[in-house]
TrEMBL record:
<dbReference type="Pfam" id="PF00067">
    <property type="entry name" value="p450"/>
</dbReference>
<keyword id="KW-0408">Iron</keyword>
<keyword id="KW-0503">Monooxygenase</keyword>
<dbReference type="GO" id="GO:0020037">
    <property type="term" value="F:heme binding"/>
</dbReference>
<dbReference type="InterPro" id="IPR001128">
    <property type="entry name" value="Cyt_P450"/>
</dbReference>
<keyword id="KW-0479">Metal-binding</keyword>
<dbReference type="GO" id="GO:0005506">
    <property type="term" value="F:iron ion binding"/>
</dbReference>
<keyword id="KW-0560">Oxidoreductase</keyword>
<keyword id="KW-0349">Heme</keyword>
<dbReference type="GO" id="GO:0004497">
    <property type="term" value="F:monooxygenase activity"/>
</dbReference>
<dbReference type="InterPro" id="IPR036396">
    <property type="entry name" value="Cyt_P450_sf"/>
</dbReference>
<comment type="similarity">
    <text>Belongs to the cytochrome P450 family.</text>
</comment>
<protein>
    <recommendedName>
        <fullName>Cytochrome P450</fullName>
    </recommendedName>
</protein>
<dbReference type="GO" id="GO:0016705">
    <property type="term" value="F:oxidoreductase activity, acting on paired donors, with incorporation or reduction of molecular oxygen"/>
</dbReference>
Amino acid sequence: MGRMEEVWGKDWMEFKPERWISKKKCTIHVPSYKFAAFMAGPRSCPGRKIAFMQLKNIASCVLRRYKIVVVDDHPVVPLPSIMMFMRYGLKVRVSSRTPGDK
């Protein structure tokens, strides 16, 4: 069993955004040790909490203002790595949200 499979499960190569959302439609807590860039324990990054807070703020602002959809027929293939890279990039279509958009 490889490291990626050990951490993320047998389907680690599959694009499954639902793995981060619970049945109650809220995000699932993932332990910090799964994010190797920040590690965990006594040597964890002191700026980790600030970095995650900034990431959440920026993501919420972008997602509130724009509709982001993966381009049809674009292969979504992650590269096995400590950092999450996409083998072919992630082509998306971005458009402004209008009132009533979901």
